[in-house]
């Protein structure tokens, strides 16, 4: 299992996207690192890749940005609140990457 970890140390923490990128890079080395030629991927490695990628990408469902919105109060006043919205970069790019990944796994 790949763990998300902070490589910087201290209390600064690590950007979530960068932590995911590092974890996916580590996973790719574990799964594909010893392949020296293009050949079908053993079923065990393929299932490990798919299982770990599903686990690693699950936080992307919660990567949101807060956008202002208006809300009517019961007393007739209008308040401006912040509402969560899916990040456009994740919403646009992730499905395309998942489609490429599944095509690659089916082929090899």
Automatic annotation (TrEMBL):
PANTHER family, sorted: ROP GUANINE NUCLEOTIDE EXCHANGE FACTOR 1 (PTHR33101), ROP GUANINE NUCLEOTIDE EXCHANGE FACTOR 14 (PTHR33101:SF2)
GO molecular function, one term: guanyl-nucleotide exchange factor activity
Gene3D superfamilies, per the entry: PRONE domain, subdomain 1
Keywords linked to the UniProt accession: Guanine-nucleotide releasing factor
Entry-linked Pfam families: PRONE (PF03759)
Domain PRONE as annotated: residue spans: 1-108
UniProt organism field: Arachis hypogaea (Peanut)
Protein name: PRONE domain-containing protein
